[in-house]
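Subject: for your reference before the review

Hello V.,

The reviewers asked for a structural picture of the protein, and I figured it would be easier to keep everything in one thread rather than splitting it across files. Below is the amino acid sequence we used in the manuscript, unchanged from the supplementary table.
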Amino acid sequence: MATSKSPKKAKSKKTKAAGTDNQKLSALDAAAKVLAETGKPMSCKEMIEAMAQKGYWSSPGGKTPASTLYSRITKDISTKGKESRFQKTDRGRFART
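And here is what came back from the structure prediction:
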């Protein structure tokens, strides 16, 4: 007696509800939020400290979170160009566009 296997159910994707602040932000989203709140250019190290202090994002145990954030911001600028949320203002400093 052969039993037929039912096809695997597709997992539903979780989507962010509009206007919910209680969900975890990504590092890039948290950095954009910090830069928008301060209104001044910041280094990645300053952004990491501000994001952790405000509870927006904290490193999950990485040794160099500021370097990782720097890499992600520069990649965002290079791939999105003028559409990027970030702008490089000086060496190692970024602002929100």
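For the response letter, the relevant points are probably these. The CA atoms of residues 33 and 96 lie 9 Å apart. Residues 65-80 form the longest helix (16 residues).

Happy to draft the paragraph if you're swamped.

O.
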